[in-house]
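This part of the workshop introduces the protein records we will be handling. A record pairs a protein's sequence with a compact description of its fold. Comparing a sequence with its tokens is the quickest way to learn the format. The record below serves as our worked example for the rest of this section:
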Amino acid sequence: YLPPTATNTTDRLAALRDAMQAHGVQAYIVPSTDAHMSEYISARDSRLGWLTGFTGSAGTGVVTQDRAAFWTDSRYWTQVERQMDCNWELQRTVWIESIGLWMLEAVPAGGNISLDPFLFSIDTWNSYSQALHGSGRILLPIETNLVDQAWGDQRPPEASGQIYSLPAEFTGSSWQEKVAGIRQQMQQHTRHPTAVLLSGLEETAWLFNLRGDDIPYTPVFYSYTLLTNTTISLFVDEQRLSPSAQQSLQAQCPGPLCVELHPYGDTRTHLSRYIQDNVTVWLGTEFTTFGLYGVIPQEKLLEDSHSPVMLAKAVKNAKEQEMLRAAHVRDAVAVIQYLLWLEKMVPQGQVDEFSGAQHIDALRQAQEHSHGPSFQSISASG
């Protein structure tokens, strides 16, 4: 018995297994993240969702030629049973040790266990490496994403919305001031790093006072930044920058406050060239993928769990504090309107969780400066 909400994954798994066979891969790990370790991901990056039919936000899949297993936490067990078919074995845990033990059982010694290094954080890569250490199984990074190959032209298109500048009245600091502050931290650090690499999408958006709509519930855009003592490289789809955003970034060209624009896909090649010289790259391990990290020799690395930009972003200036308070007041007005509406409608039997969510979203949208909710509204219970 399968509920009508379950997705038939037979053809999808067959296509992935064909791709695995072509690459000589015995097991393939599919995470629920994107290349920037984002909390929310776009439909285009929802590889695990496409492969399994599961629409929750956290999970890991592993596929071999004859088995497929899925790991997720207790929030999602009921959802998995409604959305996934019998091709998948549900593992009611999230520990990498548990995934490792399953793979040791499913993959014979000498077998390759593969993954896309641009979808795994440094820590996660190390955990898998440790789980398989000394087992005779090889952890093999493959830069071609095999799920993307199987997905083919059914995969959603790349983001195309405009990337725009945040008005000065919301920021309290120009991007030039922010860059100067980070460069000052680089000079004052005992190891004098020559560059900071930014992979987290919020880091680049905050640094340049830019916003986009590439990911639901988060006003960011796909990008990387390499900020050195004398240059600024932004890896982004240049066509999508609004004229005012482009003008803002390039008003002071040439010079140390000129932002050089490069294609998003050139990040790794550019970084490989940069590290040929006598340099030190400062990065935050939490948001950097193993694919980029692996390019930089250990002696040229300065690692912290978060980059200096992420830490600077966390400390709000007076203008940002004022804006946060004002946003909370506007939101409180919408919530009070919603509670009054509920008091009137619930006794009439006129409202359920879904119509409640729609109503509170509409009330918030009516407030000034609203750009949509920060996550899907959880409007009610029962």
Notes: The mean pLDDT is 95. The first strand starts at residue 27 and ends at 31.
